[in-house]
Amino acid sequence: MISPRQRLIRLFPLLLTLLLLIVSLWMCLAPLPFTRGPLLHEKQAIAETAERIRKNNAANQASIDELAPFWTMRATAMRQPERTGIVAFRERIESAATKTGLRSRTMSNVRRISITDQVMLLEVSFSADGNTSELVTFLNSLYAEAPRIYWRTLGIKPGSGDTLTLTGTMCTLSFVPADDAERAAQEATL
Amino acid sequence: MHFGIIEYIANQEPVELCGSASRRGVVLTPGESGIRSTPSTYQTIYLVAVPARTAVFDIELPAPLTGRSLESALRFELEQLVPLSPDKVTWSYRRLIRDNRHFRICVTHLDEVRQILDKLSGTGLCCDCFLPAQLLLNPADSAAPKLDSPARLLLEYLPSDPGGRNLHLATEPIPRWLRPVRNRRLRLLHKTLLAVACALLGAILFVRFQQFSAEYRALRANRQALDRKLQESEAVSARLLQTRELARRIAEAKIGTASVLPILADLNERMPAQMHLASYQQTADQIDLVIVSPHDDPNLPRILLGSKLYQSDLRKTVQPDSQETTFNVTLRSLLP
After folding, report:
1. Strand duo B44-49 + B129-132: pairing
2. Among A22, A73, B303, B328, which residue's Cβ finds the most Cβ atoms within 10 Å?
3. Closest CA to A154 of A126, A189, A114, A112
4. By the CB < 8 Å criterion, does A115 face chain B?
5. C-beta of residue A113 within 8 angstroms of C-beta of residue A86
6. What chain A residue is nearest to B219 in terms of C-alpha separation?
7. Are B219 and A42 in contact (CB under 8 A)?
8. How far apart are CA A58 and CA A165, in angstroms?
9. Is residue A184 predicted with pLDDT exceeding 80?
10. Distance between CA B317 and CA B299 in Å, rounded?
11. Is omega for the bond preceding B298 within 30 degrees of 0, making it cis?
12. Interface contact B218, partner A, CB < 8 A
């Protein structure tokens, strides 16, 4: 006769095996142990990164919208090295005046006002005579064609006869190409 | 409790006997090939023999000992008594009195045991333990069975020690292949189930790990892509910050404020036909106008106020010696 205790001892490996079998079946449905943490961590990181990207993009878009006038200014600005830019600026004004039939009276030397290493302002004082139509065409030419020329001061007064006298200070924005800016910075360092 | 006995007497065939022990006593019956066919029926199968080259020593220890320290002490005593290497003998011992001090050691040359086991191996019999009859001998009792009947010696002994708790086999000479295989079906079931469970668990773990690995790799790739996007976005932010600074410095230069034509066109459209512009002076975003009219026009402020290009501030002057009315207007350009 085998005692119940001995029977239990004999059955113990079988019970362990059954337990293993149950665990195996349970594993079909339950998640793999120790894997939830890394997945959760990755998901959280993804959510955080996505949120940061969303906020960053929103802020960037707001900045881009806010900078809309600047983009227009940059698109219509002069893009030449400093030396050739000064000449080109004078030529641009003279050309516009000639085309419109405006009679140029005075034009000062071009003044250079540096804003950054890459951006500068070229400024010139200018006066001319012409009729209303010529004046309007001239002003339109300065504004509509590139590089755009801005007025810092402008005065229009009646001249002799039916002519008008235009006096003012004109300027244009000039973006120095990157390699020129680097060269200028090196020269300044030396 | 059922037990089996294999009695081996020199130069005779081994005899198998079956015994059952209960509170009423021990009963011995002929085995009738029970040990051969159904060894699992017996809780223990004893091989009882009278080996030659066997020595028995009754030892009294100076202090009661149990467990490993007891066995170490007895081994030490044995080494003093037997001039043989320990790997050439097999020995067992028996507690004689419950004081844990009095023991009987029985030591047998290993070759003798091997001879007996060789005899047994050809018969298809199996056993759990080897008991030299000398260990079971009780010389104090003259009526007790003698060495010529080892099975009876065991039968006499078992009632006083039903589970054989006082018998200890210090060395185990029975090889594995000579031991009985019990519970074959249970073992087979166990092995089958274990194999199934292991295979199932392995397969499930493999599949689940593959799933986890794929998901984790996808998440990592997604995260790395998002990290790259974030870096790009931050780079754009940095460039925009520089651009904002540049735009601020350009705005400080106030160059974009003198957009003349749109304002002139707007004024030309809004002003009544009888009025004309006598002077236009603009500095930065401030525009000073002189508008001349043959007569006063109270609607002019309202007309100028309607523009989205500028804000107006109107001052009216009437020349005393002239029929004309002069309007001095200051506008603030709203154009970028």
Report:
1. parallel
2. A73
3. A126
4. yes
5. no
6. A42
7. yes
8. 49
9. no
10. 15
11. no
12. no
